[in-house]
Amino acid sequence: MSQPTTDVIIKTYPQGTVEVAQHRDLQRINDLVYAAYHPYLTRLNGKYPAPMTANYDFLIATRKLFILRTTTTSPSNTIIGCISFRLVPKTQTLEINNVAIDPRAQGQGYGKLLMKFSEDLAGDLGVKKLELYTNVKMVENIGLYERIGYVEVGRWKEDGFERVFMRKEMAEAVDGNEEGVDVGMVERLMRDLAGTGEEGDMGALGEDAGGDVEVDGEQVAQLRAQLGDLSKRRTGEEEKRSGLGR
């Protein structure tokens, strides 16, 4: 299965770029996730948490995995984090399935940066809420999520783990991250992130994995309208600043 020869940069921040993961990144991602979650094994009585057993080859093929490539640490251009999502169009929810930061880069704000990216992405997609879960024994994660506005909605056992489920409501469908929004790219992301399928289906996905999945046409139309309104508003503000709108 071939992959693009250039990185697909989704967002650029002062600390680095968030890109769609490529197959060439697979070994680095596996190593990073293992290192990030290994310290929790003692708390979990040696049982590997779900991110340590996930099929990242499949997540890359279906374009649901994103990497954080830093520009501020040495060596630069290093992958120091990753995050994966699933979009649920019917409930206008973006689910965060996994966030991992290289232990050597933890404590420097990169985890918060990936969480900011998730909110920026949710705003671009026009969804109403973000949802995630974490293990009850990963208390540091629970505290971080609460500090950035997530609220606990329940605790129950799933796949043999005691999990805490959390949610954050988006204030508006599209927030202050409107500049430079590419409607075509957003529509592609909607199709990729809304795609479903078992890992065994990967061989039938081809180069356009997730690209032909049906998404909510009304939501796409709503997104186009939102982006059009934002463009008009920015034009009006620019005219006012230049005196043309007086």
Automatic annotation (TrEMBL):
Name the residue ranges with Basic and acidic residues bias.
230-246
Q: Which UniProt keywords apply?
A: Acyltransferase, Transferase
Gene3D superfamilies annotated for this entry?
A: 3.40.630.30
Reply yes or no: does the keyword NAD apply: no
A GO MF annotation of the entry reads: acyltransferase activity, transferring groups other than amino-acyl groups
Which PROSITE patterns does UniProt cross-reference here?
GNAT (PS51186)
Every N-acetyltransferase domain range = 16-171
Disordered, as annotated region: 197-246
Q: Does the keyword Glycoprotein apply?
A: no
PANTHER family per the UniProt record, alphabetical: L-AMINO ACID N-ACETYLTRANSFERASE
Name the record gives this protein: Acyl-CoA N-acyltransferase
Q: Which organism is it from?
A: Aureobasidium pullulans (Black yeast)
